[in-house]
Amino acid sequence: MKVVIPIEQKSPAGQDAHLAEKKLAVNSTARARRIRQSRILFLLPKGEYRVTIKSKGNDSFGTKVLIRKVGEVMKSYIWFIVGGYLSGSVLFAYSIPKFMKHIDVCELSEDGNPGTYNAFKYGGFWCGVCVLLAELLKGFLPVWLCARTVGADRLPFAFVMASPVFGHAYSIFHHGRGGKAIAVSFGVMLGILPEMRPLLLLIGCYLLFSLLVQVKDHRLRSVVTYVCFAAASILFIETPQIVLGDLLAAGVVIYRHTLGRPGEAALCAKNRRWLHRMR
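Above: the chain's sequence. Below: its structure in token form.
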């Protein structure tokens, strides 16, 4: 049995569970004793396992040993990627104004974008607030739940971060069309708290090009902001999966503001035809 212990250290190839337990005991005798008492390692079938040790404070009180098979961890990431994409595909900026104000923001707006700005502009303050909270939440929940249950220490977590953004930009519920994915990207950055650097970098870049170096064109401002955010993530963040997640999310937003712009008009036309058939 090969045991992978990311918190302490990795056991060499061919080392059995008993030797891995002894190596773990070098750094923490109390924790190793709990593993030995539970005998979990000896009851598992052959395979590669991930051992996570959680404790309250520096002592062994409240220590919990969580052992997951690596293949099961990867399956969990895939489920969260799919769930994040489906969550992002729900365009609240289109559905909430429909429900609250009986208006189609795509039809009323010049750019045809089902986004938070158009919800505020055409639906009013409270409609916009509801849309903003829903957009933040649909980016926050999949990422936060994945980080708390499966973990944020593996590379597939980057795709969990990008999935709500991609889902908003290319909604499965709206014929592959969607919005520009700005609000949902902020929700994703909230989901990886207490890691605050991505969120602070994104806010800082937006404030920089909105207040100090003012870029009046909204599309250009968003593109420049996310380009700088991607560059800043590479420079100031050391965690590979977080950096990759930032780059993927930024890439989707940049593409939607440049080459992906024609989608809004098609979304409005298809939605209008669908509503007409329903009537």
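The mean pLDDT is 76.
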